[in-house]
Write a structure and sequence with these properties.
The structure is a single chain. The chain has 171 residues and is an alpha+beta fold. It contains 4 helices and 14 strands. The protein has a 4-stranded antiparallel beta sheet. InterPro entries: Cu_amine_oxidase-like_N, Mao_N_sf. Pfam families: Cu_amine_oxidN1. Keywords: Signal. This is Copper amine oxidase-like N-terminal domain-containing protein.
């Protein structure tokens, strides 16, 4: 009789543990989605497709951290993810963008109050560019000569070379 009670108690414990585990797991339906992801205006390709669940897109955090220049530390015991900046290294400016300092090397004079207006001048052309209030990220300025794309980042302000060519400011 003693063995029967022990067996019954053991069976109840095992059964209740399975029920407790089943109660904490939840099945959801999510959809893999194809998105174009850009970092500072530069298209990036994800190795793993994002998930969309109830209108919210979930990105692979390790890949996004790498794309944005962050290191990632994952602690399984604490169930925590820590993104850490990789230092103050100067960000590489993509080939089709030019910094204001590099633009000066092309004999372009930069004037204006640089708060709400920037004026770019060469010997033959002057281009007034209206600036946004918040200088962060990508911005397209509408000018008389066409749209000029600007990128405001921690490493400084860059201007898209193609937009300067289209506007006739540089050749």
């Amino acid at each position: 009789m003693k063995k029967a009670i022990i067996g019954l108690v053991a069976g109840m414990l095992i059964g209740s543990a399975g029920m407790a585990a089943a109660a904490t797991t939840q099945t959801v339906q999510a959809v893999f989605a194809k998105f174009t992801l850009s970092v500072d205006g530069q298209k990036q390709t994800l190795k793993n497709d994002p998930l969309v669940y109830k209108g919210t897109t979930y990105l692979p955090v390790r890949e996004v951290a790498e794309m944005t220049g962050y290191g990632l530390e994952y602690d399984n015991t604490k169930k925590s993810i820590d993104l850490k900046s990789k230092g103050t290294a100067t960000a590489k400016i993509p080939e089709n963008w030019i910094s204001l300092d590099e633009l000066k090397n092309l004999n372009v004079t930069i004037t204006g109050n640089l708060t709400d207006t920037m004026v770019l001048k060469t010997e033959s052309k002057s281009l007034e560019i209206p600036l946004p209030v918040q200088k962060k990220g990508l911005y397209t300025a509408k000018t008389e000569s066409g749209n000029i794309e600007l990128n405001f980042s921690e490493s400084g302000t860059q201007i898209n070379l193609d937009s300067l060519l289209s506007a006739g400011l540089i050749q």
